[in-house]
Amino acid sequence: MNRFFLAIPVTIYNYEELQNDFNDLIKGRWVPSQNLHLTLQFFGDRFTKDLLIQKLSRLDLQIKPSEIRGLELFFHKKILYAKTDNPSLKTLHEKIQETFLISSQEEFIPHITLIRIKNIQDQVLLEQKLKMYHKNTIGILHPNIQLIQSHLGSGAAKYECIIELA
Fold first, then answer.
1. Around Cβ 75, how many Cβ atoms within 10 Å?
2. Contacts of 132 (CB under 8 A, 6+ apart)
C-alpha cells in the first residue's frame, strides 16, 4: 500500500543517546533516524501523485528553520514526540488543507514522532525524565518540504521523496 504525505526533514542531535535515556522507562518501536520528520499534511491515497505535485507546486511553501525543543507524550496515542514552536507551520498546514479541501477534527500539533509506545515501565520516572528535556534543544527542523511516498510492507515503512517543494 502506498500513501503520500508532506514532510519536513529533521535532525535530532544525539538520537541514540536520547533512546538510551528512555529505554528503561518505555518499550516500543523507535522511528529509525532516516525516517524522522515532521508531517505537515497526511494525504494517504486520496490524491494522485500528479495532482499533488501540480497543486503543491503552486503554493508558497517557504518555512524558516527552527529548533526542536523538548519532549512530550500523546497519551491517547501512546507516542513520545519532539516538539517545535514554529507558528508558521499551523498557517501553512491550514493553507494546504484549504487547497485540497481537507477538513480535520483534530487540532494540528506540529511534532516529530520518536517512538510508538507499547508499554510504560514506570510512569513517575517517565514524567521526571520528560521534565529534564522540557526546554532543551534536541534538534533542528530543516527549511525544506518534501512530498513523500510511503511504501508499507513487513517491517518499517520505506519513504521515497517524490519531489522537494521548498
1. 9
2. none
Residue ranges and CATH numbers for the domains of the chain are 2-164 (3.90.1140.10)
| The residue to which cell 530543516 is assigned | 142
Residue partners of 131: CB distance under 8 A and separation at least 6? none
**Collapsing DSSP states into helix, strand and coil, what is residue 23?**
coil
Contact 75, 148 (CB under 8 A): no
- Contact between 4 and 45 under an 8 Å Cβ cutoff? The reply is yes
Q: In what order do the strands lie in the sheet with 26-30?
A: 26-30, 111-120, 79-83, 71-74
C-alpha–C-alpha distance, residues 70 and 132, integer Å = 9
More confident residue, 136 or 153: 136
pLDDT in tens, 3-51: 999 999 999 999 999 999 999 999 999 999 999 999 999 999 999 999 9
Q: Which residues pair with 12 in a beta bridge?
A: 139
b/e burial code for range 35-50 (CB count within 10 A of at least 16 → b): ebbbbbbebeeebeee
- Please name the amino acid found at residue 77: K
Pairwise CA distance, residues 147 & 7, whole Å: 6
pLDDT per residue as tens digits for the range 69-78? 999 999 888 9
